[in-house]
Every structure is written in C-alpha cells, then in structure tokens.
Specification:
Among the domains are: 93 residues, conserved putative lor/sdh protein from methanococcus maripaludis s2 fold (Beta Barrel); 62 residues, OB fold (Dihydrolipoamide Acetyltransferase, E2P) (Beta Barrel); 62 residues, Helix Hairpins (Orthogonal Bundle). Helices cover 30% and strands 34% of the residues. The relative contact order is 0.17. It is of the alpha+beta class and 383 residues long. The chain has five helices and 21 strands. The two termini are 80 Å apart.
C-alpha cells in the first residue's frame, strides 16, 4: 500500500512535534533539577546567641608611678633591683648631696649670725638706744635666713629617694653615676614602681562598635605566650574622646585639602579600659591582648545564618523556601548578630526554610537581590 506525500508530511510533522514537546519537558526537568541542586537552604532554629566586639590592647598595671628627683644631682646608690618588692616610704636610692649639705651649712651659719644681730637690735630698741627701722631690718634678715635654711634642709632631704607606693620595681633602675635631672617637662626617671597584682587592658575600639560597649560587660582575651588559654576581664572605663582628640581643633593651623581628606578618611578609635582577672599572676606588663567583649547574650534566639540575610531600600529580608522549592521574599527585623548567625525578631518562625544563595526568580527580584548581594560582599548587614 502506497502512502502519498501528504500523509508522509503529516506523519513527519507529528513526529517532530512529539520530539519537540518531549525535548522541552526534558529540558525543563533538567533545569528544575539543576536549580534545586544549586539552591542551598537553612532551617530557622533557636539557639543561644552571643554578640562580641573584638579589639586589641596592652596589659598594664592599674597603679604605677615613675620615681624622679626633685633636685638635680648624681645618683650615689641604688638600693633595689628589678622585680624587688618595695613598700611606701622605703629608701630605694640616694643622690650625691655634698653640694646641698654645704649650702645647708652656710644657711645655718647665716641664721646664727642674723639671730644674734636681731637679738642685739632688739635689746638696743628696748633700752631706747636703737631705732625701730634698724630692728625691723634685722628681723627681716633673720627671717630670710631661716627660710633659706629650711629650703637647704629640704634639698638635702631630697637626696634620699623613697618609694611613693607599695609595689614592685619594674624594669632596670638607672645605674649609679647617672646625673638625675629635675624638671616638669622631662625629668630623669630613676625607676618605675607598679602594683603588678592588679592589671588592666587599655584597648582601642573602632567608632562603629563603641556604642555597643557598656561598663561592666564581661570579656575574654588571649595572649600569644599562652596558646589555647583564655583569660577573663570586664569593662571598667570608656573614654569620652577618641584616641587622637580629632574634635579639638583649637590652635591648629588650616590644613590643605589633601590633608583634610586624609584626616576625614582615618579610622577613629576610643580607649576602653578593662580590669583583668589574673589570680595566678602569670600575665606580664606590655603583653598584647586580643579581646572579645561580650555585648549581648540571648538564650533561645530565633536565628538564621548571616548568609541568608539580604538588604534593599526597604530594609532586611530573606528568601523563604516553601515545600515546592519556590522562594518568596520575606521582610524581617533583626536583633543580636554573631560572627555566623543573626537573631530574627519578626518575619519568620522556627522550622522555616530560607535560601542562603542568590536566586534570580524574576526581573524585579533580580534587581533587588543583586543590590543585596553587593552589600553582603562589603560586610555584614546593619542590625
């Protein structure tokens, strides 16, 4: 039986159509499977969430003092050495006092002479043989000599250097023979005494984090020498001004546009002082401490991975995944944020599935997600 050309053509069209439909369905199935495989999801769950602020600081004593002379003289003796414990009032060094002792002796001699002269003029005035003016002059000379003697004796006493507080000598004292110079701006530091039983950390906190720091917050820190060991501390003081006092422009000259640009771009830090718990006294002054200050601690917080959180002009949102694998944009309110998770206050429930990958489901959502993806690459979204 012969099949005419029209029948052959119809059969060919049917076969082609069937192949096309089947190929398209196969293609759709492959794309759906591929998309499902590429989309990673996370379950909204409750957990204990802690938020911390990291900073770096230096371990220093709570109380310390520099021992400097009140007179200028050569160091005659050093009676203590590094790491020696001292008590307040203990003699720790002496200065060469020969010149000051000679001045004291001269002042004493002058006091004796002026006293005798004053007593003679007083007698003459009392018997009517002297004038009041001569008596007043003698009295003035005597009082001046007494004042000079007092100053000379004080200088001699200052050749004995005593510890101003209980503590430990930190660092090597100046050697014998060094000229110890008095002064208000740059005096010679003979030695340093510190109370090493009470230590603190002076940490620098970025201005973006300083608002989260509060007095009394707990902190943990590590130092390089004790690998794997964690120490504790708590916030004792927060500086009211930044480390460079950038706000204080009094007395500064006008800067060029380039220097102004550099200044405005610099990072602002604030000092935060933390009292250190060191019962075994193993920490040494000057060690670098890497501090994590606990700013929040929430039990049973509803959380999602930070990778699931996105932002656009309307705020924060996530892509919730339904049972069919489809995603929908859900606005959320966030709370405490850790390094990996963020607390969800509104918008989700425990057990919900959220996408943690970029998924362009439509033209409009593609624009929104693209924006949030760029923000996520720059850093965690704002709380």
């Amino acid at each position: 039986m012969k099949i005419n050309n029209k029948v052959k053509a119809a059969i060919a069209v049917i076969i082609i159509a069937a192949c096309s439909v089947g190929g398209y369905q196969y293609y759709q199935a492959q794309q759906t499977a591929k998309q499902a495989t590429a989309t990673e999801t996370a379950t909204v769950q409750r957990m204990n969430l802690k938020s911390t602020v990291s900073a770096t600081g230096t371990i220093s004593p709570v109380d310390s003092v520099e021992v400097s002379p009140k007179i200028t003289a050569r160091i005659n003796s050093i009676l203590v050495k590094e790491n020696d414990a001292v008590t307040a009032g203990q003699t720790v060094a002496t200065l060469d006092g020969k010149d000051y002792e000679a001045k004291r002796d001269q002042a004493q001699f002058k006091v004796t002479n002026t006293k005798q002269e004053y007593e003679r003029y007083l007698y003459l005035y009392q018997v009517g043989a002297g004038t009041k003016q001569a008596l007043d002059t003698a009295e003035y000379n005597y009082n001046t000599a007494v004042s000079a003697l007092s100053e000379a004796e004080s200088d001699v006493n200052e050749t004995i250097i005593t510890a101003p507080m209980d503590g430990v000598v930190v660092g090597e004292p100046k050697p014998v023979g060094t000229m110890a110079v008095q002064g208000n701006s740059n005096p010679t530091v003979i030695m340093r005494v510190a109370n090493t039983s009470q230590k603190q950390i002076l940490a620098k906190v970025d201005e973006t984090d300083i608002g989260q720091i509060k007095i009394g917050q707990n902190a943990t820190f590590t130092v390089d020498t004790y690998t794997g060991q964690t120490f504790t501390a708590h916030v004792a003081k927060i500086s009211q001004t930044d480390t460079s006092n950038t706000w204080d422009t009094n007395g500064t000259s006008s800067s060029s546009s380039s220097s102004s640009s550099t200044s405005s771009a610099s990072v602002i830090y604030y000092y935060v002082t933390l009292d250190v718990d060191d019962p075994d006294n193993v920490l040494r002054l000057g060690m670098t401490a890497r501090v994590d200050i606990e700013t929040a601690d929430v039990d049973g917080a509803l959380t999602v991975p930070i990778a699931a959180l996105k932002t656009n002009d309307n705020g924060s949102y996530v892509l919730r995944v339904n049972s069919a694998g489809q995603t929908e944009q859900v606005a959320v309110t966030t709370g405490v944020m850790s390094d990996e998770y963020v607390q969800i206050l509104t918008g989700l429930e425990a057990g919900d599935k959220v996408s943690i990958t970029y998924n362009a489901s439509s033209k409009s959502s593609s624009s929104s997600n693209s924006s949030s993806k760029n923000k996520q690459q720059q850093g965690p979204p704002p709380m």
